[in-house]
């Protein structure tokens, strides 16, 4: 699905909606990973690893799959705690593990084997591919390396501007392309930074009863830039 971005701002992005989740903007930096989400359940080995730096959107993207596939989601650091529950619940057929490189290796291997034995699906996120994880279990790394790996980077210019536009539009805040360019060229390149900036500007705009312009953004966000 492709929708026109507001205010005739031409970007190489598309806006996707999946299973009730908020719109997710796709660009060249995450298009391959989005393709894997699109073709599920036609995944080789019934699994996928999504890698990328903090703030690249890999967790958000993976949550789209989690909701679409009715999988459970768990942080890597909590795999040991939920493993027994997963084993005892026949309805759990698929699982999304965020920051899988932080999981207890033995617990993660047991989770992998259990889900795989049921014909389910697994999606793992991490900053780096499994081949470079500090892991003492060769069996686990061997299994993870057999899965397709999709690496995504921090938002490129088009994606970052599209994200800012979408966030302002969601709040029914009118901004122009000059403001978007001003912010995008100065901010940290991450989804979380974009959200924090939009929230801050909107709150201050309402509080001060001022329109969000470049001078206003410079005043409010001066210490960030």
Which tags fit this structure?
single chain, 225 residues, alpha/beta, Rossmann fold, Helicase, Ruva Protein, domain 3, five-stranded parallel beta sheet, two-stranded antiparallel ribbon, 9 helices, disordered N terminus
Secondary structure layout plus pairing:
Blueprint: E1 14-16, E2 24-26, H1 31-39, E3 47-51, H2 58-69, E4 72-75, H3 79-88, E5 94-98, H4 105-117, E6 121-126, H5 138-145, E7 149-151, H6 157-170, H7 177-184, H8 191-208, H9 214-221
Parallel strand pairs: 3-6, 3-7, 4-5, 5-6
Antiparallel strand pairs: 1-2
Helix pairs in contact: 3-4, 6-8, 8-9
Structural description of this entry:
By secondary structure, the chain is of the alpha/beta class. The protein folds into two domains: 30-151, Rossmann fold, CATH 3.40.50.300; 154-221, Orthogonal Bundle (Helicase, Ruva Protein, domain 3). 44% of the residues lie in helices and 13% in strands. It has nine helices and seven strands, in the order ββαβαβαβαβαβαααα. The chain has helices at 31-39, 58-69, 79-88, 105-117, 138-145, 157-170, 177-184, 191-208, 214-221, and strands at residues 14-16, 24-26, 47-51, 72-75, 94-98, 121-126, 149-151. A five-stranded parallel β-sheet has the order 4-5-6-3-7, sandwiched between helices. A two-stranded antiparallel ribbon has the order 1-2. β4 (72-75), α3 (79-88) and β5 (94-98) form a beta-alpha-beta unit. α3 (79-88) runs parallel beside α4. 32% of the residues are buried.
Uncertain regions: pLDDT < 50 for 5+ in a row? 1-15
The total count of strands amounts to 7
Rg from Cα:
20 Å
Can you write the helix and strand succession as a string?
A: EEHEHEHEHEHEHHHH
Oligomer: single chain
Distance between the termini: 35 Å
Counting structural domains, the number is: 2
Q: What is the CATH architecture assignment of the largest domain?
A: 3-Layer(aba) Sandwich
Q: How would a textbook summarize the main sheet?
A: 5 strands, parallel
CATH H-level name of the largest domain... which superfamily? Answer: P-loop containing nucleotide triphosphate hydrolases
Helix content range: 40-55%
Q: How are strands sequenced across the largest beta sheet?
A: 4-5-6-3-7
